[in-house]
């Protein structure tokens, strides 16, 4: 039984108990060495979510809420990426600040990572077949279980958030509940499974393998419905369309094929890359198809014209992973063989930010937190790393802390003084990219300005046409194809049923002034600085 001496203050830590006596000598009662408590960095989204919920009634539009000022005290004004003030500007959701690196005791490559649907935990799949659960706030280890007998290759959650399906190196597929209870396992392919994707209805899912086959499965009956054959080599990636019964696949033969999931026919073949297609992802708008290849290129295709409308060059090695942002439809991240992570915005040919030394080896998987404020990267260097948004008022050294925790000196670069991102409005009245000087962040240092703001078309559409049928930049918000909301007649307020004469806005303002007068804001600022 462990005991503590009250003299001189108690000391505690993981792995045993003990204290310091009168002479300063360490007393150990259970034979275990005393370990000092380590303060962990925490990224808690609850405070920012509550701020958004309180202010969304009277700060529901971009023009009604100011951007956080470049001072440390403005950290209290941060809101989730889904808030209108952040959603209008994809630069605000770029996660280049290193937070934590998690490593298992049995060191091995991490092949896959997925957040749980509620965002409280992260699940990683290792080459040893183990699942590791990490805390989503403090990033510490929670539990580990032997899920497969071989390396985990793919992990995906169903859209209803009840089931997780995984595939391993031996061609085995398993069904998991949210409590990590395995209910079903069956042999799906003869060789290693490379990717799995759910249909929008969750009634079916597709899997691809190194045996060159794409199979469509009935989820409930666990029966193979059809096999899609047409690739001449290993099929490395697939993705089910978010709306239509269409499957996109990429293979080692450098071909991209679009399949009809109902009939099994090959609708078209896209010739855009010169090497293995490593990743393929549909955008949430259903119009853009993102592809990454070992030819170091990232391409964006439009399904309506079946043509490529943008080629992105920025990686120096093979592209190994990609992921669209869950909130910003024009923002995505990509990882490469050399461990670099790049952030892209559709319409700009160069990455808006990149971390060139994110990992020491290839980045096998990337996944955004469901809220979009944290990015997780899984790598062949045995580590799982967490990245978050920069806080307002971060110094230049804070912005350029690399993945090893070492500060880079921005003064060694030839860049001009930094100008922090803020919301700006262009001449056409649409929200800008957040940098008046069009500066971007490349690697651990800030490089030169990109070439222009990007194309004039709105989100979800190619350069020659607006998004959707009948959409027009002048009558729809951000080219969504829906008519712009109209203010109802009579001078009332259109949000939440609150009128300008109900006093709802005045009540919130009085509460906020009372909070400031009582010193609550000052105490929170001091706690943040101490943390």
UniProtKB/TrEMBL annotation:
Compositional bias per record (Polar residues), positions renumbered to this chain: 411-421, 436-445
GO CC terms, sorted: mRNA cleavage and polyadenylation specificity factor complex
Location within or outside the cell: Nucleus
InterPro entries per the UniProt record, alphabetical: Pfs2-like, WD40/YVTN_repeat-like_dom_sf, WD40_PAC1, WD40_repeat_CS, WD40_repeat_dom_sf, WD40_rpt
Gene3D superfamilies xrefs: YVTN repeat-like/Quinoprotein amine dehydrogenase
Segments annotated as WD repeats: 145-177, 186-227, 228-269, 270-311, 312-354, 356-387
GO biological process, one term: mRNA 3'-end processing
SUPFAM superfamilies linked: WD40 repeat-like
Residue ranges, annotated region (Disordered): 384-507
Family matches, as SMART domains: WD40
The keyword Thylakoid appears for this protein: no
Entry annotated with the keyword Repeat: yes
Name recorded for this polypeptide: Anaphase-promoting complex subunit 4 WD40 domain-containing protein
Main location: nucleus
Keywords: mRNA processing, Nucleus, Repeat, WD repeat
């Amino acid at each position: 039984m462990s005991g503590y001496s009250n003299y001189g203050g108690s000391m505690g830590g993981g792995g045993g108990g003990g204290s310091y006596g009168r002479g300063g000598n360490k007393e150990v009662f259970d034979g275990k060495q005393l370990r000092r408590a380590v303060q962990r960095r925490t990224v808690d989204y609850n405070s920012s979510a509550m701020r958004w919920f309180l202010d969304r009634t009277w700060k529901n539009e971009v023009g009604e809420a100011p951007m956080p000022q470049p001072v440390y005290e403005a950290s209290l004004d941060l809101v989730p990426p889904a808030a209108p003030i952040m959603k209008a500007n994809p630069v605000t959701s770029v996660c280049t600040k290193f937070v934590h690196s998690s490593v298992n005791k049995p060191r091995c490559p991490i092949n896959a990572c997925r957040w749980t649907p509620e965002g409280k935990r992260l699940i990683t799949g290792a080459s040893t077949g183990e699942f590791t659960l990490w805390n989503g706030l403090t990033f510490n280890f929670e539990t580990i279980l032997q899920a497969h007998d071989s390396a985990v290759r793919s992990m995906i959650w169903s859209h209803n958030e009840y089931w997780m399906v995984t595939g391993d190196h031996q061609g085995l597929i398993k069904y998991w509940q949210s409590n990590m209870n395995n209910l079903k396992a069956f042999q799906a392919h003869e060789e290693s499974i490379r990717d799995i994707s759910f249909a929008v209805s969750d009634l079916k899912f597709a899997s691809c393998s190194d045996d060159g086959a794409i199979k469509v499965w009935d989820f409930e009956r666990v029966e193979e419905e059809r096999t899609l054959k047409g690739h001449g080599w290993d099929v490395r990636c697939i993705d089910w369309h978010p709306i239509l019964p269409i499957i996109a696949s990429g293979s080692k033969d450098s071909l991209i094929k679009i399949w009809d999931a109902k009939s099994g026919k090959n609708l078209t073949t896209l010739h855009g890359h010169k090497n293995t297609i490593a990743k393929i992802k549909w955008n949430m708008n259903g119009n853009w198809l993102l592809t990454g290849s070992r030819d170091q290129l990232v391409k964006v295709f439009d399904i309506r014209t079946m043509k490529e409308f943008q080629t992105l060059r920025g990686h120096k090695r093979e592209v190994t992973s990609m992921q669209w942002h869950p909130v910003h439809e024009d923002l995505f991240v990509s990882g490469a063989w050399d461990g670099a992570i790049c952030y892209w915005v559709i319409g700009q040919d160069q990455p808006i930010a990149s971390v060139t030394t994110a990992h020491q080896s290839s980045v096998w998987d990337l996944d955004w937190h469901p809220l979009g404020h944290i990015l997780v990267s899984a790598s062949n260097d045995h580590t799982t790393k967490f990245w978050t948004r920069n806080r307002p008022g971060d110094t230049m050294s804070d912005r350029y802390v690399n993945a090893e925790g070492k500060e880079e000196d921005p003064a060694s670069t030839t860049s001009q003084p930094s100008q922090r991102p803020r919301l700006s409005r262009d001449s056409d009245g649409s929200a800008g990219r957040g940098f008046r000087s069009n500066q971007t962040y490349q690697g651990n240092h800030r490089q030169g300005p990109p070439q222009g703001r990007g194309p004039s078309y709105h989100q979800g559409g190619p350069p020659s046409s607006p998004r959707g049928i009948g959409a027009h930049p002048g009558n729809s918000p951000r080219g969504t194809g829906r008519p712009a909301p109209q203010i109802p007649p009579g001078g009332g307020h259109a949000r939440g049923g609150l009128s300008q004469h109900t006093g709802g806005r005045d009540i919130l303002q009085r509460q906020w002034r009372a909070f400031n007068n009582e010193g609550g804001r000052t105490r929170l600022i001091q706690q943040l600085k101490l943390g």
